[in-house]
């Protein structure tokens, strides 16, 4: 049966970036959405700024919820479904935390009882405000909120692996109470997959929530080590999708490539379109892939100060809503690909990252790591290759459930 992969984009407003919530303009939003829909995309991911929506622990602004609903309704007018992130949290190098949990009111984001209670009420309010809208896809707990939990954050909210799991389950339960039955998820940056000391783990990502989300950024050492057109760089998104499937208890669990982009100078602007095409071609046929959501829709206005240089030019469109070559490449891929027939990888590499729950040896999965190198060596030869955790490599029933007929080698710690 043909498989239809969803194609969307992370919505960065062309005027004011995410500060647009302070000067909410439905006409500007509709113009942005019109330019997004023109690329043939079917969904967007949007980002309320937490301090603006819940400026006091006991105040969730009705006007902010109303404006979020207006944005979702405007997206429906353009044939776009909407996924909404809750706890922003962290965006493009900036942290957005409400004042009631910083400085004089400093308390832990993941473990303080009053903070957790407030977060639950906030996520429930977001979900409840949008429940029943036909184009609302569900909530994501927050954007890479795991970056607050440890180094290299300058002021981390320390948490144990057990506390992280408890927090995630409570947040997702709050989402489901607000909008029952929708595929609510959570999202981590790649320390969850690549750093054995990080409290958020691959098992958290692959077993909690309705889908596994992955963020594939090649400025994490991949493009620096292997070059902008290296096989490992172009295969990185496919790799993290296959890595995610290895930790899932359910072989049929969907994976959402929630962020992928072409960051300059690691991907030179003149090579961004080629990078996008190669990345999409490698990942779009991965079995179990729910969708691909590019980062991001529109460039950041250079009138806004202090962003890292790479953040300004990640858009598929300019601030004037003109389609860039990378946007043209994505639109052409969507037009030409159509529904694809997906065949699960018959061959899988065995990964030994230690205990499956905490994965202390997951550093072997990072760029330059032994498992990363092995997987890329096999995959760059044209073979579609999966990943199997070491303790499951001899489980015939499990392998059959994933359609894997052969396991190859074992990369130990």
UniProtKB/TrEMBL annotation:
Keyword Hydrolase found: yes
Record's keyword annotation contains Hydrolase: yes
Alphabetical list of InterPro entries matching this protein: GH
MF terms in GO: hydrolase activity
Domain of life of the native organism: Bacteria
Key words, A-Z: Hydrolase
Name of protein: Glycosyl hydrolase
Taxonomic source organism: Streptomyces orinoci
